[in-house]
Amino acid sequence: MMHFLWLISMIGAVACQTAPDYGYATMSDVQGPVPPGPANWSTIYPLCAGKLQSPINIETKKEALNSVGVPWGVTTTNCNSSIFTLVVKNSRGSEHTINDRHFAAQLHLVFYNTRYGSFSNSVDKPDGLAVLGVLISATCPGNRILGNFARKLKKVTDEGASINVTASDGIRLKYLMPFNNEQEDIVDDDEDDDDDDASGIDNDVDDGDNDDDDEDVDGKKKKIGYYTYRGSLTTPPCYESVRWIVFKDKIKISNKQLGKFRNLKAQYGGAPGFMCDNIRPVQPLFKTQSVLR
Fold this sequence. Notes:
By secondary structure, the protein is mainly beta. Helix content is about 5%, strand content about 20%. It has helices at about 120, 145-150, 255-260; strands spanning about 5-10, 55-60, 75-80, 85, 95-100, 105-115, 130-140, 140-145, 185, 225-230, 240-245, 250-255.
């Protein structure tokens, strides 16, 4: 049985760099020299042209019917890892697509194989990482936990800034899972209020597999739906070391909450001066890959 360690972070790259040698912008977006965008990442990182690359388009009518159980041996720690992908338009914010459809954003929760002792030792191993991909839909109401998270972003607007975030801030990642029934939906959030938390929410992560989850209101077990495949990091160096688990159900985010994420600055984001459009285009699905559900 493989166990993974949960990596929790603020928004950032898998490998933080003070002077990145890749970006999302094009020559028409910014002045001066521009690091290569996704189409040219492989000129510096050859693995980005590999045959197990992510993200992919998931075609629900074609995916295999096999069910794959996911072992959970989870501990919490902090590490730099990508947590959000965003674009300016709600119709194309996620990296993974379902039947060619994008969603407003995508949340990544990164785990590493404790067999290798650390994230840095696991990142390039074929069985080194597992990433939960949570698709996010722009709706009203939004999600209270994302709202609590978004309130902190004004303190990290500039690229390279950081702030500690704990459960006492009302940010409990369990309640960002699409199968959780207690996401604490909100109609809107006060832009200047940093004290609104989600008190009373438990942050434990339960062991389970594809058929086990929290009980619903009728006391019945609710099945967790997801797609899984072997893929890669969606940023250079594009190591093909990831077991992707993309949930079928989505979580909510309001347009106001999205706006706070889109105000984050980045020199080489896809939108000039901002982190928006930090998505890699969908990659080809080769015969060496199979998508299971």
